[in-house]
Amino acid sequence: MKNGCLIVNLGSPEEPTEDVIRNFLRNMLSDRCIVNLHPILWKPILNGIILKVRPHKLIDRYQAMWTPHGSPLSVITQQQCAMLQEALSHVDVRYAFCASSPTIEEALTDWDIDDLTVIPLYPQFATSTVTPIVTRVIDFYDALACDKKQSLPGDSTVRGSKVHPHLHFVSSYATEPHMIHWYQQQIRDLCATVPYDHVLLSFHGVPDQRYHCAAHYKAQCIATRDAIAAAFPDLPISISFQSKFGPGEWLGPSTAQRVTELPAEGVKKLLVATPSFVADCLETLEEVRLDYRDHFLRAGGQIFDVINPINADPAFGKTLSSLYRSVQKISPSTSEFC
After folding, report:
1. Which of 93, 109, 172, 246 could form a disulfide with 85 if both were Cys (CB 3.0 to 4.6 A apart)?
2. What SS3 state is found at 277?
3. Alpha helices in 94-252 (DSSP H)
4. What are phi and psi of 92, to 5 degrees?
């Protein structure tokens, strides 16, 4: 049997230019799972002020973090794919993005496999991140099956014609041991050199709505915090949420708010980690490392250190390979979430 594994992240602009950034934002923000306003209301806003103003504001930030090989997220995702391929020599491993190339559809096209495991690169489940991946994979194979059926004569069906591999989806892995141990070791190593007052775990925010499974998502973020904090009973470790976009209530407290409040609460030496991000991107390199550091120091803080995302560390290769192997223990008679 031919087995495949697809890892999927959001993606990033392919070039740090205004037009390419605009196209990336259009692809991302047109997804109803991310912005669940009716298109009649949302499209004029998106095509109006957002796509006219925001790309220009982001150019300098993207150019500042760009590498000779492309955006950090794209480069790191390719490294993660290669790392997983090495660990799973018997499996064909590919990567894809939701809002840039290679798209999910491009990755799946002409892929001759019997069994496919899809791993979203989001440790905590949210409607805006994992759901679009699941939907697009299923829609791709449903469309392929329909095309195949229409191409057959008479009352023939696609039964017996392999167009749909057996599918497995990993929906979350908020407390995966390899990943948790990696964060614990990072904190342990840094605390050996700096006596931090506090550790702040900053997760990507989502709208505080039932549609976005906000309560479930926050519970998983808390589970990640609790798993990491279990190794540090005497070190305060709290959570916050970053990267709010648009109006409405989002999960709180916000990271921007907390980094300005903590110095007044006696926190002068702060260590920040971002466990919902598995690859460096604009939110980690710019928002966390630059913006939040500035807010904290201006509010009276003295030391602001950041733990990089797990990126292409071998521990994440072990995380991904462990997730794949755990899925393969499921009976092949049904497709399941893990």
Report:
1. 93
2. coil
3. 104-108, 130-151, 177-191, 214-229
4. -85, 115
CA distances from 105 to 143, 150, 313 (A): 11, 20, 28
Q: Which residues of 198-228 are buried (b: 16+ CB within 10 A; e: fewer)?
A: bbbbbbbbbbbeeebbbeebbebbbbbbebb
Which two three-digit tokens encode residue 75? 């480069």
For residue 37, pLDDT over 50 is answered with yes
Burial of 19 (0-12, 13-18, 19+ CB in 10 A): exposed
- What band does 211 get if pLDDT is binned at 50, 70 and 90? confident
Nearest Cα to Cα of residue 201 among 216, 175, 183, 176: 183
Helix (H) or strand (E) holding 58: helix 51-65
Cα–Cα dist 72/295, whole Å: 24
Q: What is the pTM for the complete model shown? A: 0.91
Amino acid code (one letter) for 18: E
pLDDT for residue 161 is more than 80 = no
For residue 177, the SS3 value is: helix
Sheet containing 115-120: give its strands across.
92-97, 3-9, 115-120, 166-169
Question: Which residue has 């794919």 as its token pair?
Answer: 81
Rounded Cα distance, 213 and 337, in Å = 16
Burial 45-62 (b: 16+ CB within 10 A, else e): ebeeebbeebbeebeebb
Write down the mean pLDDT value for the chain: 92
